[in-house]
């Protein structure tokens, strides 16, 4: 079984601050965030992968000027999704974790992106199946999605033989996140 570090730089207080800011910006999602705040108040590090029954993960919604969204092909599952994953022990913020994951997973040039804000654009709660090989029971991810803008698709992503990327219309993104991205693209004047 792999050894996991329990030290994390993103504290539970920092996560609570992000959650409360998100609730203020998205009051209709208070019920979704309430359990995260309670877990962060009373439990171990909420950003540590080993924290059960739930922990925080991050992903990056990277959009081009024409509001196409970057997706990568996950080699282990052959599923297209936005770059993301678990928060590392050396991440100093959730926003930084999302950007770091985009750099590592999709080859995104950190200097080529502009954050859409300091709060998550969307938060999704999803159940993750048990992974016996990793010693992980079924658990919950609070997936914090941060929005990033790029001025040029070709300059934003380094070429890589191991990473396949594509740019899709926001309507192709499922769930609440897809609806939010579609609305944002329409508000930007890119009505389809």
Automatic annotation (TrEMBL):
This protein's name: NUDIX hydrolase
């Amino acid at each position: 079984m792999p050894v996991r570090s329990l030290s994390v730089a993103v504290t539970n207080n920092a996560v609570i601050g992000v959650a409360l800011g998100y609730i203020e910006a998205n009051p209709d999602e208070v019920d979704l965030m309430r359990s995260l705040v309670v877990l962060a108040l009373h439990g171990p590090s909420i950003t540590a992968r080993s924290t059960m029954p739930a922990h925080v993960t991050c992903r990056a919604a990277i959009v081009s000027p024409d509001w196409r969204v970057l997706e990568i092909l996950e080699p282990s599952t052959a599923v297209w999704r936005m770059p993301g994953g678990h928060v590392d022990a050396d991440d100093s913020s959730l926003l930084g974790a999302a950007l770091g994951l985009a750099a590592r997973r999709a080859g995104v040039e950190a200097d080529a992106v502009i954050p859409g804000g300091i709060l998550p654009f969307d938060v999704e709660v999803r159940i993750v199946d048990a992974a016996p090989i990793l010693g992980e029971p079924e658990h919950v991810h609070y997936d914090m999605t941060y929005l990033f803008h790029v001025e040029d698709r070709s300059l934003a992503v380094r070429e890589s033989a191991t990473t396949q990327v594509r740019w899709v219309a926001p309507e192709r993104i499922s769930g609440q996140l897809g609806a939010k991205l579609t609305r944002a693209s329409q508000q930007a004047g890119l009505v389809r």
